[in-house]
TrEMBL record, chain A:
This is Putative small integral membrane protein. The chain crosses the membrane at residues 6-29, 50-66, 72-89. InterPro entries: DUF2160_TM (IPR018678). Keywords: Membrane, Transmembrane, Transmembrane helix. Pfam families: DUF2160 (PF09928).
Automatic annotation (TrEMBL), chain B:
Keywords: Membrane, Transmembrane, Transmembrane helix, Transport. This is Carbohydrate ABC transporter membrane protein 1 (CUT1 family). It is found in: Cell membrane. The keyword Transit peptide does not apply. Belongs to the binding-protein-dependent transport system permease family. The lineage of its organism: Bacteria, Pseudomonadati, Pseudomonadota, Gammaproteobacteria, Oceanospirillales.
Length: 90, 289
């Protein structure tokens, strides 16, 4: 595994993604979701909203890196709030 | 009455694909993520730099230019290849030996390897030994793809159109063959014009294959590397340096693995976003119908 040049932050990032995917699978088995329309202008399932949330979070982080000198943790906190709003009302 | 037995054993059939994708895509992607946050000198020497490479990549004007060029290129070839592919498919014979012959002839450019396509057009466009270059010279057009940026662009676009329009044409051809004859019979009873048949029967029935065609051509053109590399080498200047060539220059030419990895991830995210937007828009258009 040394050739993959692991670092602690990237390992934590992938563990986080893995936990989210396993959690979402378990949630889907426990209570299967139906498509619905929230504030997003399209019908979405839980998985769709997660994908939209993760992709938009990546772009929010990139915009933060490019446009500000602020600590990236600020972007991460904003993204976490955005994910909760999206999953609940999206 | 027989009851359906449900089990999840079919998932095991997907396992080989999952293993292949893990080795060919997921593990390399994870490695790239790891590289993107480090300054790597050799296999044993690397330093964590956080988001520094991402900042450098996001503010690099060369990459901005390559990104604009890339979008312009993909948009241009989609605007040409999709209507042209539909047109070719509509004109192809539907039955008999001529249909088989036509299919083979149309498919030939798809069978040629990318680097050979680049070489063919490199020779084809030369004024001294190439048919196209000599023809342009004969009709009095000052054409030189090696020194004029517009000519270089036109040649790269023409080459891509020649290489990939057959894919769109074959997809559309298969879509057209799948339309049941009763639709055409109904159109004949209604005395529908040729345009009305195309607009209200053929085009709606082609939506699914066109989704695949647009997505495939967008992704492929957005990742184009070999053909322009062989034909123009990214020049003249950097007028045909697209994203993947800029990336290769950085990763292999300069061996800047960290910035190149950050660049790859931004590139990946853009492709993911555009494909998702395309796919969602088209699927929603279908739902609304």
């Amino acid at each position: 595994m040394a050739w993959m040049s692991w670092t602690l932050p990237t390992a934590l990032f992938f563990i986080g993604i893995g936990v989210i995917l396993v959690g979402m699978t378990a949630w889907q088995i426990a209570s299967p979701c139906v498509e619905r329309r929230g504030f997003l202008p399209l019908d979405t399932t839980r998985g769709d909203r997660l994908f939209i949330g993760l992709l938009s979070s990546a772009f929010i982080h990139l915009a933060f890196v490019a446009l500000t000198d602020a600590n990236l943790m600020v972007a991460t906190v904003l993204c976490a709030i955005w994910m909760i709003i999206l999953m609940r009302w999206g | 009455m027989q009851t359906k037995v449900e089990n999840n054993k079919a998932w095991f059939l997907v396992l080989p694909v999952f293993i292949i994708v893990a080795f060919s895509a997921i593990i390399p992607l994870m490695t790239v993520v790891n590289y993107s946050v480090q300054d790597i000198f050799d296999q044993n020497t690397s330093y964590f730099v956080g988001a520094e490479w991402f900042k450098q990549v996001m503010l690099d004007s060369r990459l901005h230019d390559a990104l604009i060029r890339q979008f312009l290129f993909s948009l241009t070839i989609l605007l040409i290849e999709i209507p042209l592919g539909i047109g070719v498919a509509l004109m192809m014979p539907t039955k008999g030996k001529s249909a088989s012959l036509c299919l083979i002839l149309v498919a030939i450019p798809l069978l040629i390897p990318w680097n050979v396509v680049g070489t063919i057009w490199q020779i084809f466009g030369r004024e001294d030994i190439g048919l196209f270059g000599a023809f342009m010279s004969t009709i009095g057009v000052d054409y030189n793809y090696a020194s004029d940026p517009f000519d270089a662009w036109a040649t790269v676009v023409l080459m891509d159109v020649w290489h990939w329009t057959p894919l769109v044409a074959l997809l559309c051809y298969s879509g057209l063959r799948a339309i049941p004859e009763v639709y055409y019979q109904a159109a004949r009873i209604d005395q529908a014009s040729r345009w009305a048949v195309f607009r209200y029967i053929q085009l709606p029935k082609l939506t699914n294959v066109l989704i695949i065609g647009v997505l495939l051509r967008f992704m492929d053109s957005f990742m184009i590397y070999t053909e322009p590399f062989v034909l123009t080498g990214g020049g003249p200047g950097s007028s045909t340096t697209f994203l993947s060539q800029a990336l290769v220059q950085q990763a292999i030419g300069q061996f800047d693995l960290g910035p190149a990895a950050a660049f790859s991830l931004v590139y990946f995210l853009i492709i993911l976003l555009v494909c998702w937007v395309f796919y969602t828009t088209i699927m929603n258009m279908q739902k609304d119908k």
